[in-house]
């Protein structure tokens, strides 16, 4: 699936593949390179083959200050994911953050506030694409959640096959959209219901819950809570457990479980985009976003 089609020239320019050792297919040392496997990526996404785990890549999100999912960042994530999916030397991805204390602050509010309908439509298509790419990935995708993870950051985490969260009370996770005066799209809701059950999801969505680690574990929004300095090693050991399963059987099973949920969006992607554009363009919603952005600024004192 050519994801660069339709990208703005600037975005396409941003994503020129980094210089790589000739012949260094991801996961294999290039002939004569001598120094092992090279990383690849782009300005906001660093992908490093895990030196301790053959076939595993660590994808580090580094869009400071808060890994907010801007259009450029989404595009870089999508292209990195596509590269990894297409490189058969890889069987698993650990997604983590390089921004201290923050996994991802979710969708970039500035992509939705004061923007014209055409931009909002382009942005929402990229949001849909990232979810579909992660949620339906043939690779094992493990979230090494080393920071706070509201809204879109929570969706990214929920789309992984397994979630390891650092036991830091500041690292809350949840779909908090109602606190912004907006609503989680139905496919965000679907993934939460699939993960924590209908009643827990209904309550969490309406109240915009951000679960601290202990509650997140109890409700099931994450699978494991570990000390902060063990998140990456725990993700790696869980990855080994998942990679012990034959890929084809695991992939067919993942598809069996997840395709009905993904199909609900796939069957109405354009309608969902139009719904989003209509909703986000409402004066009342733009006002809510303005108020929320002002609160974020005032918070800094
Ligand atoms: C019919 C319905 C159809 C469709 C559905 C309709 C609508 C769905 C629409 C949207 C769905 C949205 C899902 C989302 O993801 S919305 C985003 C939710 N995110 C949040 O609520 C997090 C907000 N941020 C924070 O709480 C904090 O920033 C923090 C805890 C993540 C980090 O706190 P810090 O104190 O470390 O950092 P700050 O000083 O707060 O922030 C630094 C800097 O970054 C800016 N920023 C923070 N978050 C965002 C963001 N999500 N988008 C854009 N910018 C963000 C913040 O303003 C600061 O900027 P300045 O340095 O002041 O310029």
Word description of this protein:
The structure is a single chain. The protein has helices at residues 9-14, 71-86, 117-135, 152-158, 186-196, 198-207, 213-219, 231-243, 247-266, 269-280, 283-299; strands at 40-42, 45-49, 56-61, 92-97, 101-102, 140-145, 147-150, 162-166, 173-174, 224-226. It is of the alpha/beta class. It has a 7-stranded mixed beta sheet with strand order 1-2-3-4-6-8-10, with helices on both faces. Helix 5 (186-196) packs across helix 9. The protein is globular, with a radius of gyration of 19 Å. Bound molecules: ligand LSE3YFK7. Residues 65-66, 68, 102, 105-110, 148, 150-152, 176-177, 180, 182-183, 185, 275-276, 279-280, 296-297, 299-300 line the site of ligand LSE3YFK7. Its main location: mitochondrion. One of its GO terms (cellular component) is mitochondrial matrix. InterPro entries: ClpP/crotonase-like_dom_sf (IPR029045), Enoyl-CoA_hyd/isom_CS (IPR018376), Enoyl-CoA_hydra/iso (IPR001753). Its EC number is 5.3.3.8.
């Amino acid at each position: 699936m050519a994801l660069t089609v339709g990208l703005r020239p600037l975005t396409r320019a941003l994503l020129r593949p980094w210089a790589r050792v000739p012949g260094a297919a991801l996961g294999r040392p290039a002939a004569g390179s001598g120094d092992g496997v090279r990383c690849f990526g782009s300005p906001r996404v660093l992908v490093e083959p895990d030196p301790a785990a053959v076939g595993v890549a660590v994808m580090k999100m580094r869009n400071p200050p808060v890994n907010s999912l801007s259009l450029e960042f989404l595009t870089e994530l999508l292209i990195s994911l596509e590269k990894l999916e297409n490189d058969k030397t890889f069987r698993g991805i650990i997604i983590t953050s390089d921004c201290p204390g923050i996994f991802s602050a979710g969708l970039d509010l500035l992509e939705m506030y004061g923007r014209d309908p055409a931009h909002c439509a382009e942005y929402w298509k990229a949001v849909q694409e990232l979810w579909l790419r992660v949620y339906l990935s043939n690779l094992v995708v493990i979230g090494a959640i080393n920071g706070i993870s509201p809204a879109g950051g929570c969706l990214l985490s929920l789309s992984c096959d397994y979630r390891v969260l650092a036991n830091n009370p500041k690292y809350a996770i949840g779909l908090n959209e109602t606190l912004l005066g907006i609503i989680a799209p139905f496919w965000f809701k679907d993934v939460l219901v699939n993960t924590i059950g209908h009643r827990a999801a209904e309550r969490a969505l309406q109240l915009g819950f951000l679960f601290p680690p202990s509650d997140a574990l109890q409700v099931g929004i994450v699978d494991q809570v570990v000390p902060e300095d063990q998140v990456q090693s725990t993700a790696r050991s869980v990855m080994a457990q998942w990679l012990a399963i034959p890929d084809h059987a695991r992939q067919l099973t993942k598809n069996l479980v997840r395709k009905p949920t993904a199909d609900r969006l796939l069957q109405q992607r354009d309608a969902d985009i139009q719904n989003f554009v209509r909703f986000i363009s409402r004066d009342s919603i733009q006002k809510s976003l303005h108020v929320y952005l002002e609160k974020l600024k005032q918070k800094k004192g």
